[in-house]
Design a protein that fits this description.
single chain; Four Helix Bundle (Hemerythrin (Met), subunit A); elongated; disordered C terminus
């Protein structure tokens, strides 16, 4: 199913996160000497985009999805996965992930994103009216404004 324009910003961010997952998978097994730089990159992704993305989903998207009985269980699963992923990002902040942990992280994040895209988004697009999706899009845009503004235009002052 074609992604509704109101969910496209989340899908674009999913692509960014999936790119990180693919890079980790391709680099595996990761040498011990490279662990610190991978963890630093994870932390930067979380700080600049993923953390804001998770918050927008939790504050806007998930409450809207809970309005549909058939989505309550998947929302609960996604919230639990956010907690697990946040814990992994926190461990990366402290440089406490092993090479195996990095690969587990990539697999967990990739699976989480695919569940959101293939289950949650697909159902929401079928269940919500166009007006509801449009209102959801406005709320998501506001919730993600820091990411959107940071990514919209390069900072010319640093050129």
């Amino acid at each position: 199913m074609l992604r509704d324009k109101n969910l496209v910003p989340l899908s674009r961010q999913h692509q960014h996160a999936l790119a990180l997952c693919v890079r980790i998978e391709r680099a595996s097994p990761i040498a011990v000497s490279d662990l610190a730089s991978w963890q630093e990159e994870m932390v930067e992704h979380f700080r600049s985009e993923i953390g804001i993305h998770f918050a927008a989903e939790e504050q806007v998207l998930f409450p809207a999805a809970r309005g549909f009985a058939e989505l309550v269980l998947v929302v609960e699963e996604l919230i639990a996965e956010h907690g697990e992923l946040r814990a992994m990002f926190e461990r990366a902040t402290g440089q406490k992930l092993s090479a195996g942990d990095l690969r587990d992280f990539a697999q967990k994040l990739s699976g989480h994103i695919r569940k959101e895209e293939r289950v949650l988004f697909e159902h929401l697009q079928r269940l919500m009216k166009a007006e509801e999706l449009a209102l959801l899009g406005v709320k998501l845009e506001e919730a993600m404004k820091d990411v959107t503004q940071a990514c919209a235009w390069p900072n010319r002052s640093s050129d």
